[in-house]
Every structure is written in structure tokens, then in C-alpha cells.
Amino acid sequence: MDTERQCAPEQPTESKPEGKARGADINYGIDDNPPWYLCIMMALQHYLTMIGAIVSIPFILTPALCMRDEDPARGTIISTMIFVTGLITYLQATWGCRLPLVQGGTISFLVPTLAILNLPQWKCPPDDAINAMTDTDRTELWQVRMRELSGAIAVAAVTQLVLGFSGLVGKLLRIITPLTIVPTVALVGITLFQHASETASKQWGIAVGTTAMLTLFSQVMGEVPFPGIAYRKGHGLRVVWFPLFKLFPVLLTIAIMWTVCGVLTATGVFPEGHPARTDVRLRVLQDAEWFRVPYPGQFGLPTVSLAGVLGMLAGVLACTVESISYYPTIAQMCAAPPPPLHAINRGIGIEGLGTMLAGLWGSGNGTNTFGENVGAIGVTKVGSRRVIQWAALIMVLQGVLNKFGAAFIMIPDPVVGGIFCVMFGMITAFGLAALQYVDLRSSRNLYILGVSFFFPLVLCLWLQEHPGAIQTGNQTVDSTLSVLLGMTILVGGVLGCVLDNLIPGTPEERGLVAWSKEMALETVQANDDLPAGGLAWEKSTFDFPYGVQLMRRWKWTRYVPFLPTYRMKL
After folding, report:
1. Mind spelling out the 3-state secondary structure of 258-280?
2. 10 Å Cβ neighbour count for 397?
């Protein structure tokens, strides 16, 4: 048996991507292909990071749909959301913007969803009336509401499709500046603190232990080598040393703290019904089907109403700005070049397609870039596209094998809350990182930053405490305004964008010069002498995996905004 010390897992023999030159401190860059067994482990880590957030959405959504707690359809909705998340994540990572991001359900759509279901015609009847219904009537009670949400989400997603594939999102990039990005992204993490608090407070000891262990593994023990056994043909078994704690801090933390909760459950430390018990969601596991393939229209033909579409449109617009904010951040984190315009256009278009499919499939939600997984990349420093593709495969399989997903749903809430404390904090920090481009000595920039942060928190909190405050005489308008003005990320992003573009300031002061380099919005002459494939690094990172050589033969593809051969005219 050979003994070999290696501080990082074996790297493939292929050349490293040019993005490595950006100097990002990562273990695997966007174009790196880790060994398959490491891919599966790291993909599972992304799945576990995502599952806590995506599962929380149906648990908030189903009561508003008038669905009883013991209804096995709750598991069907959860599996549908994860199944669609896997499909769209694969499309996005492979054919969309090609960044290693996860596309899944989002709280941004939950806000307009609850506003729609709060309309008089969709309010739930009293519990006594529901209990007196037959099983068929109770099923129709929640399915008719799901059909309303499905139609609203699918139609509203057309806006995002048009923005992306038409290239109009490129026009938006001219006004989406760092002072727009900062409040939009940072307020995501700040707004989510309540969700982290609610889950962590169910058992603070477990939650704090989870946060402390994740910090220890990812920040303190990251360089500590761990022994493992590998086999190579011709060399036999050998001991290899690799950075276990740096590669799998989230997975290790969840496994250890889940085991701790299991021991405390078995010994009776946690009483029956305690949220930190590992058997608190055992009913979900028992009711879950072994095998079921979700399909479009599984709850009936979607219906469409103006109030529903306008409400969901707010969620679509907020998600568009949020995703645009994430793209350059993710690219930098995974040592990729700045995303070119065609990749951004394609990413928003694929996200719109994902939201439409999520609506038609009956998930009751749309899709958006998962901030939690953006945080996971920052913690693990693994930004490989191949890992995300494996994660998408796990999600699709879990969406079909319901028992598999139900097992992970049993992760105790305090463990998830401890993970959220780290992940949501990192999302906020990533948003604030865009301040590196602007001049913080400028009183102009400080004013915009302060107003765009503080005012949304004040306004949205007041609207939550006074839900009927907006009275225009038109219920549809009231509901739409309540949804729009109740979203901190939308209000903060719009405020930052408007103020930054209206208040005079130099390009250097506003950070536009440095930001333009990150967004890669260079304009080039589209003529016969210029190769249609783009810059050299762009070819290997953001091009389609197949067919680009054929596209270069057709000059008309240079004018299609979402193709890798797209060239902008001077």
C-alpha cells in the first residue's frame, strides 16, 4: 500500500480554465471536473443546503391552500418543487448562463402568493366546514387554488422570458449599478433573518452548535489534511490526504448535528413533539409514496386572472434583478471570467422558462437563483459546474423517489436554523461586497446607500403590521400595491437604481468603470474580420457545450442576443 500526501484531491489532466487567473481562492473552478465520487459528495452538500429552504416553502404554502396537515399531497408538492428545481438547474448550468448556480423555489414568490390567497374569493372556509367535507371536496378545495397560482405564475413568467431572450435585459444592465446591486442582494439576507431566527430558536443549543461547527470546519480546519484510502490500477491501495473539512463543511456539520439530535431523541432528552427531535416529521416519511413522476397539469388545467398575474409579476421582476445581481458575484467566486452579455440574457431567459414550468407543473412557486447555494460556494470554495449538474440529477431522482426526499425533510429545524445563520449572513456580505466598486468617501453614495437600506425595512415592516392600509377602492390595485411595496428587495433595489441614476455623480464615483469590467459589457464591431465566437476565455466557459462551431459559420447568429456568437455593434 502506497502512502501519498496531497493537500487537495487529484485534479484532472485537462488544462485549467483561464478564469483561474482572476486569483480566486477556490478548490475547484467553474470548468474543473472533480472525480465522480467527490462530485457526488459535493453535489449532495448542495442538495442539503437547498433542501431546508425549498421544503419550508410548501409548509408555508399548503395551509394557505386550505390543505390539512395530514394530507399526503403535501409530500407531492414538495417532490414537485424539487423535481422542477433539478430540471431547471441542469438547463441553467448546461445551456443557460452556465454558472454553477441552483435554480429553485423562492420566498420572493411566496409573498405575492399569500397576497393572492388572501383575497376574499380564495380565503379558506372555517375548519369545521373543511372537516365536514368529503375527501373529494377537500382535494378540490386546495387544487382550485393551486390552479389559480399555476396560471398566474406561468403567465407572469412570460415577461422574464421576453426580457432574457430578446436581449432587453442588456438594456437594464446599463442602469443596474453597484448601488442597485448592494441593497437588492444584501436585503435578501437581512429580510430572511426572521426565518433563520424562527428555526434556530426552536433549540438554541443545537442551532449555535451547528453554526460553531460549520465555522470551525470551513474557516479554522480548512487546511487540515484528512487521510483516505484510494485505489489506482497498477498501484493498488494507497493512503491519500485531502482537505475534508474544506470540501464538505456543510455536509459534515449536518451529519454530525443530526446524529447528536438522534442521540438526544433516543435518550429522551427532547420530549415528544420537540422540534429538535429526529422523528418529529416521521409522518411525512410514512405518507410519502415510493415512486411518482410529477407532470404538468397534475392538479388540473391552470386558470388565469388579472389580479393573480399582476401580483406574480412583482415576484418575477424582483427575481430578475436579484439574479442579475448574483451572476458577477458567482463568477468571481468560482474563478470564472465576468459573464458576457449573451450569458446574462440566456440566464434570465432560462430562469423565466423555469418559472413557467414550475407554474405549469403545479409547484405553487417560481424559480430563482438560490442564495443559500451561493453562500455554500463561498464556504466550500467549490465552484465546479459539474458538481451542480450532479446536484441537479440528485434533485430529479429525489423528485421521483419520494421516500428519499422525505428522509432529508426530517432534518431537525434547529440544525437548519444554524446553517441559515451562516448562509444568510454570507448572502448579505456578498451584497455588501459590491461596495468595493464605489467611492465610499462620497457623501452622495453614502446617502443613496442609507436610504435604500433603511426605508424599505421601515415601509415593509409597517405594511406587514397594517395589511389593509392601502385602500384605493379597487381590490386588485390594493393587492398589487401591497405586494409590490411589501417586498424589501424590490423597494430597496428600485430606490438604489433611481437615486443612483438621478443624483449627479462621476462614473468613477458611482463605480461604473470598475463594474463594467465585472459585467463584461464591452461593445465590439460586428464585421467579417472579427471572429464570432468571442474572446478566448469566453469560448471555454460560457459557450454551449455543443454546436458553437456550427453557429460560427452562420453570420446571422451574431445578432441573436442569447447565442454565444452574439456580437454587439458599436
Report:
1. HHHHHHHHHCCCCCCCCCCCCCC
2. 14
Q: How many CA atoms lie within 13 A of 194 on its CB side?
A: 6
Query: Domain locations in the chain?
Result: 36-518
**Cell numbers linked to 344:** 446574462
Per-residue pLDDT tens digits of the chain, which is 570 residues long: 444 444 444 443 343 444 444 544 677 888 888 888 888 888 887 777 677 567 667 767 888 888 876 677 777 888 888 899 999 999 999 999 999 988 888 766 776 787 778 777 788 888 888 888 888 888 888 999 999 999 999 999 999 999 999 988 877 777 888 898 888 878 877 877 777 788 888 889 989 999 999 899 888 887 788 887 765 666 677 787 777 787 678 778 888 999 999 999 988 888 888 888 888 777 777 777 788 888 898 888 899 887 788 778 877 877 887 787 778 778 878 878 888 888 889 999 999 999 999 999 988 888 888 766 776 677 667 788 999 999 999 889 888 887 776 676 778 888 888 888 887 787 788 788 889 889 999 999 999 999 999 999 999 888 877 877 888 877 777 777 776 787 787 788 889 999 999 999 999 999 888 877 766 555 443 444 444 444 443 456 888 888 888 888 888 888 888 888 887 653
Orientation angle between helical segments 306-333 and 107-117, nearest 10 degrees: 170
CA distance 553 to 551: 5
Distance CA(279)–CA(429), nearest Å, equals 35
Residue 382 DSSP label: B
Say what the pTM is: 0.74
In whole angstroms, what separates CA 147 from the centre of its chain? 24
Could you tell me what percentage of the chain is helix, strand and coil, using 3-state DSSP and rounding each to the nearest 5? 65, 5, 30
φ and ψ of 500, to 5 deg: -70, -30
80/398 Cα distance (integer angstroms) = 10
Q: What angle do CA 172, 97, 314 make, to 5 degrees?
A: 45
- How buried is 459 (Cβ within 10 angstroms: 0-12 exposed, 13-18 middle, 19+ buried)? middle
C-alpha distances in angstroms, 213 versus 7, 49, 190, 232, 260? Answer: 22, 15, 22, 33, 12
